[in-house]
Specification:
This protein is mainly alpha-helical. It is about 65% helix and about 5% strand. The strands form 2 sheets. It has a two-stranded parallel sheet with strand order 1-2. It has a two-stranded antiparallel sheet with strand order 3-4. α1 links the parallel β1 and β2. α4 crosses α9, α6 packs antiparallel against α7 and α7 packs across α12. The longest helix is centred in the middle third of the chain and has 28 residues.
């Protein structure tokens, strides 16, 4: 997050609705009026019921907005104030994913990876990529350069964090638990996985990635590529360095005409950063010689 980031928020309801809830949402919006408002699609900055987040996973009622709210609630959210409703909703969303993952519960898998949850996170990543093209057309290419760089880095990081959180269900099992899951009865794993996932997902995506790769010191060189590139990306968006008077590099990217991309040094620098980021990811997560790569090739591709 930088000083120019959108402030995306929702008023999360887990219970009986009342007319006062909308008034509360208006009061929140008024309080936060000095911050950068949520995106124009209306996904955030509003009241959201837990019913849709928990019960509409897949199918026609699982709209883009509902999927976005659910996945980002798991991967990127922070609660403000009393956390009771927040904790209940996250726990019940995870319960949906795990209770209906019969391959996981039936002990049929060599690796204990929650595929229902992982597939929904993967679907969200692909949806972001498709929506990028939709917004390009709907906005007549306005803001293309900035959104493109963010898709290559921060959006991809969200997906990566989701993969890792799912993989941590398997990586975090002790030998006794794993043997019991495979050979006996793994229904006991649902509450274990819920608590483990909640702990992993409570971390910011970048911290979750760091925490995971630290367990694989043989991957340090590739990990360094990822974090060095991401640091350059954050500096690019946060820097006060001006491309020309009164215009920072982030502002320049947001205003850049799509016809000028090939000749623009700032955009080309952002692309170079994204290539370094991608190279580090490929070396770790598409290499069957390490556990993270093995799990990605087994569960994250097909």
């Amino acid at each position: 997050m930088t000083r120019s980031s959108d402030l995306d928020w929702i008023l999360l309801l887990d219970g009986v609705a009342s007319p006062e809830h909308l008034e509360t949402a208006h009061a929140i919006a008024k309080t936060l009026a000095s911050e950068k408002a949520p995106g124009r699609e209306g996904t955030f900055g509003t009241v959201v019921s837990s019913h849709d987040l928990i019960n509409h996973i897949g199918g026609q009622e699982d709209t883009n907005a509902n999927t976005t709210r659910r996945i980002l609630l798991l991967l990127e959210s922070v609660v403000i104030g009393n956390s009771d409703a927040y904790d209940r909703v996250i726990k019940n969303i995870l319960k949906r994913y795990l209770n209906e993952d019969y391959g996981l519960r039936g002990g049929y898998k060599q690796h204990q990876v929650p595929r229902f949850l992982l597939n929904d996170i993967t679907r969200y990543w692909r949806m972001m990529a498709v929506d990028f093209a939709y917004k390009q057309r709907a906005r007549n290419n306005a803001g293309f350069a900035l959104r493109n760089i963010k898709l290559r880095l921060s959006r991809k990081l969200i997906y990566l964090a989701g993969l890792i959180a799912c993989f941590q269900c398997h990586l975090g099992l002790g030998e006794t638990e794993l043997r019991r899951a495979i050979e006996e009865d793994d229904t006991f794993l649902t509450p274990v996985f819920i608590e483990r996932l909640r702990g992993q997902l409570a971390l910011p995506p970048l911290e979750l990635l760091a925490k995971t790769v630290l367990d694989f010191p043989q991957l340090n060189t590739s990990s360094k590529k990822i974090f060095d590139a991401y640091e350059k990306f954050l500096e690019l968006l946060h820097s006060d360095l001006e491309v020309y008077p009164g215009c920072t590099r982030r502002m320049h990217l947001d205003q850049l005409n799509i016809d000028d991309l090939r000749q623009d040094d700032t955009f080309q620098y952002g692309r170079l950063i994204s290539y370094e980021f991608q190279e580090g990811i490929k070396e770790i997560f598409l290499d069957s010689a390490n556990t993270l790569g093995e799990l990605t090739l087994e569960y994250g591709i097909f």
